[in-house]
Amino acid sequence: MAPTYEPTSTPDASEETTLLHVSAAGPSTLDTTCRDITDVNATKRSYLRKIVLYGGVFTLTVGFVFVVLSRISKETTFQSTASASYHQFPDDFSWGAATSSYQIEGATNEGGRGLSIWDTFCQKPGKIADNSTGDVACDHYHRFREDVQLMKELGLKAYRFSIAWPRIFPNGNDEKPNPEGISFYNHLIDELLKNDIEPWVTLYHWDLPQALEDSYGGWLNTLIVEDFGTYATTCFEAFGDRVRNWITINEAWTVAVQAYEDGTKAPGKVVNPPVDVYVAGHHLLLAHARAASIYKRDFAPTQHGMIGMSNCGDFRYPLDPASLEDSMAAERAMVFQYSWFTDPLVYGDYPDEMRARLGDRLPKFTPTDSQELVDSLDFMGLNHYSTLYASTSSSPSHYDGYWNDMDVEFSSDDAWRKNYMGWSTNPDGCKELLLWIGRRYPTLPIVITENGTSEYEPDMNTAIADEGRRQYFESYIRASGEAIDLGVHLIGYFAWSLFDNFEWEYGYTRRFGLCHVDFQTLERTPKSSALWYRDTIRAHGSNLQRSGQR
């Protein structure tokens, strides 16, 4: 703060003595004249002293202000340069991590929970790489309070988890919900909010009640739409007073393709792939629309939340950018994956490219269906992991089904890093995909609901020093920031996953966690990537230099 100068008009002691001097004999003419002269001279001196004093103050003040302004200018220039050099995500950006119920909860036979299709699938010989199950997993069901404390220590602002449908309705469509299941999620939600962590709740992350699979074929039967609507309504009623962010279904593409064509995901029912894949996908979309319409009509006006759907999307570059055929193949690959489950929710029908190729095998929406579908999204969820090249097929396929319908060959680049899943990682592909989604659906915000990598971690020491994962997160979050700079409305990012967990058909042989889990002792240990992510959240991403500044 600048010093303050307050000059006074009071003369000093010597001046006062001179001005007030009177002869003891009384005032004579000479004395009067001299006194007048003295008074005039004293007054001049006083004015001169004041002029000098004020002039000095003015000069000093101007000089000081000049120095201060120069310093401020330099600091502002530095801050402006720093701001231009580093990313700065929005203040209300949702920074979080994600998990799913079957992968971490365990306690599959506790709390009134019914069987899921994954409980059954894990019992089939050869389906799980290490013959394991999710019976214990991370034991989150018993350890959720300490897990929430770990989230708080890592600075998470949001936590995405899924509700196990068979924990709420053990048989899928019971007359009344299971009170123990409701109680568990109530306690989890309350614990999160007590620690200032925003819950993001997924209604379906693949653990369909086995009873619905047995009674009418699960996702292959339209009856599931009504049952999903009832289940969703129960969750909105039980938890919606505290949950503001809902995701209906996680990766409908994975459910449809990998469960009914590839057979690698539960229920692994490969009977008639050219038809079943699209029937299952159709019912998944209708189930989302039913839940979203119920929420928007009956709950959103008072609960003030938002609802969306998480679809998986990988970016595809044309193998030969100069080739029209390869460019069309790249576009078609992304349409057959992401747009298959997003176009109907925005435009009311499947993409034209799919209609043209599939004909009558692609189910049709009724006018009522379309009415429920359109505007059923408040945001688009994106689960993104990898990028590949796409080109036209060089030879006819020897089988019918989804991959033949798409008719695209995929290849990688030797310069792209491969993770332990064998997936090609390329952060520029993440940026390009966000831009592609933003162009195709310009009115809706995007949330990256999953992004992460599995690394080779044969022991705990290797796992803790997970530089590959740290670099992955740094590069992909930077790419997300670049997309925001280019106008993409990205409002959140969730790392996959908070914990090493049961990784579906890979069992416990693949680790995606920010935190290492010892599956013998169940001890959790944050990896270096988790500590880096904590610091990035604190900095709102401003610790990330823009690509051109590195």
From TrEMBL:
<keyword id="KW-0472">Membrane</keyword>
<feature type="active site" description="Nucleophile">
    <location>
        <position position="450"/>
    </location>
</feature>
<keyword id="KW-0326">Glycosidase</keyword>
<keyword id="KW-0119">Carbohydrate metabolism</keyword>
<dbReference type="InterPro" id="IPR017736">
    <property type="entry name" value="Glyco_hydro_1_beta-glucosidase"/>
</dbReference>
<protein>
    <recommendedName>
        <fullName>beta-glucosidase</fullName>
        <ecNumber>3.2.1.21</ecNumber>
    </recommendedName>
</protein>
<feature type="binding site">
    <location>
        <position position="250"/>
    </location>
    <ligand>
        <name>substrate</name>
    </ligand>
</feature>
<feature type="binding site">
    <location>
        <begin position="503"/>
        <end position="504"/>
    </location>
    <ligand>
        <name>substrate</name>
    </ligand>
</feature>
<feature type="active site" description="Proton donor">
    <location>
        <position position="251"/>
    </location>
</feature>
<keyword id="KW-0378">Hydrolase</keyword>
<keyword id="KW-0624">Polysaccharide degradation</keyword>
<feature type="binding site">
    <location>
        <position position="496"/>
    </location>
    <ligand>
        <name>substrate</name>
    </ligand>
</feature>
<dbReference type="InterPro" id="IPR033132">
    <property type="entry name" value="GH_1_N_CS"/>
</dbReference>
<dbReference type="GO" id="GO:0008422">
    <property type="term" value="F:beta-glucosidase activity"/>
</dbReference>
<dbReference type="GO" id="GO:0030245">
    <property type="term" value="P:cellulose catabolic process"/>
</dbReference>
<feature type="binding site">
    <location>
        <position position="103"/>
    </location>
    <ligand>
        <name>substrate</name>
    </ligand>
</feature>
<keyword id="KW-0136">Cellulose degradation</keyword>
<comment type="similarity">
    <text>Belongs to the glycosyl hydrolase 1 family.</text>
</comment>
<keyword id="KW-0812">Transmembrane</keyword>
<dbReference type="Pfam" id="PF00232">
    <property type="entry name" value="Glyco_hydro_1"/>
</dbReference>
<feature type="binding site">
    <location>
        <position position="385"/>
    </location>
    <ligand>
        <name>substrate</name>
    </ligand>
</feature>
<keyword id="KW-1133">Transmembrane helix</keyword>
<dbReference type="InterPro" id="IPR001360">
    <property type="entry name" value="Glyco_hydro_1"/>
</dbReference>
<feature type="transmembrane region" description="Helical">
    <location>
        <begin position="51"/>
        <end position="69"/>
    </location>
</feature>
<feature type="binding site">
    <location>
        <position position="205"/>
    </location>
    <ligand>
        <name>substrate</name>
    </ligand>
</feature>
